[in-house]
Prior knowledge:
The chain is mainly alpha-helical. Helices cover 65% and strands 9% of the residues. It has 3 helices and 2 strands; from the N terminus they run E-E-H-H-H. The protein has helices spanning 50-117, 122-157, 166-187, and strands at residues 7-15, 34-42. The protein has a two-stranded antiparallel sheet with strand order 1-2. Helix 1 (50-117) packs antiparallel against helix 2. Mean pLDDT is 82; it is low at 190-195.
Amino acid sequence: REFWVQQxxxxxQYLDAIAASGRGSGTPxxxxxxxxxxxxxxxxxxxxxxxRSALNRSRIQVRQLALSDxxxxxxxxxxxRAAMHAAQASYVNIELSEIGAEASRKNLELVSEAYxxxxxxxxxxLDAQNQSxxxxxxxxxxxxxxxxxxxxxxxxxxxxxxxxxxxxxxASRDEFFQYIKERxxxxxxxxxxxx
Length: 195
């Protein structure tokens, strides 16, 4: 509208001598009121194309803001998805680490029996003990990693479970584990597919 709307301004002024006293202060014109009214209108006929460039600049800024908004939304969505996939992978890793720790414990038992019978050396026994300890440590670290990934997920979604009520906590957990189960079902190969 700046291209064709004119600018209007109205000014008014009123002067009146309310009181005058003292020697020589009175004149015959003191009782006359003084007032004026002015109306000004201007229409921008030629402004050196500055209004058109200002309009184009504003349009470009609006597009830049829209792109920045879309990029921010995409970044937030990407961080939520990355945190969710990391939490899913670390949740699956807990079970695999437990299986590995259990296998290392059974191996340690077998090696201990073989050492007692004299068929294996002390070095074999020490290696089995180290492997068992390392597997137990990996199982503990898997739980720790899962909790860190859950915190990253909660930070990305701005929903912290310790601030929720009991029913909301349960619903949030159920939703997360349902997502993990669906992803695990999608990742399993069907008959005839190679894993």
